[in-house]
Amino acid sequence: MYTVRIREHIMIAHSLPSPVFGPAQKMHGATYVVDAEFISPTVDENNIVIDIGLATDILKATLKPLGYQNLDDLEQFKGKLTTTEFLANYIHQQMAQAVAGQFKGRLKITLGESHVAWASYEGEV
Predict the structure, then answer these.
(1) Concatenated DSSP letters for 2-67?
(2) How many domains does the chain have?
(3) How much is the average pLDDT of 82-111?
(4) What CATH number is associated with residue 41?
(5) Is the pTM of this model over 0.90?
(6) d(CA 25, CA 117)
(7) Could you list the residue range(s) of the whole structural domain that residue 111 is in?
C-alpha cells in the first residue's frame, strides 16, 4: 500500500453538553493537529498517490470555515456532540467530496487532541 500524509492544524471552541464529558460540558477551546492520509494500492501515471500540493490546499480549504469558530454556533453542528471522533468523520466527508475526481482509495483523517489522545476516521473516497 502507498500512503501520502499531510498535516495542518485548527483552533476551535465548543462544548460537549453530556454528563459523560465532565468538565468538557462547558465551553472550552481545542487546537487539533489534523492529519489526512491518502492510501492506495497503486500510484498513477505520474507515480503519485495524490499531488501533495493539491491535497494540502484541499485540507486547508476544508478546515478554514471551522477555524476560530465556536462549533456550537455553526448550523451544520446544531444539536451534535462535536467530539474528536465526530469531527474526524465530518472532515473526512468534506475532503472525500473535494478529492473524488482526483483520488481513488482510502482516506484517513486523524485529529490529535493532545500529545496523548487522538481519534481517526477512515473510509473509501
Answers:
(1) EEEEEEEEEEEEE---SGGGGGGGS-EEEEEEEEEEEEESS--TTS-SS-HHHHHHHHHHHHGGGT
(2) 1
(3) 97
(4) 3.30.479.10
(5) yes
(6) 18
(7) 2-124
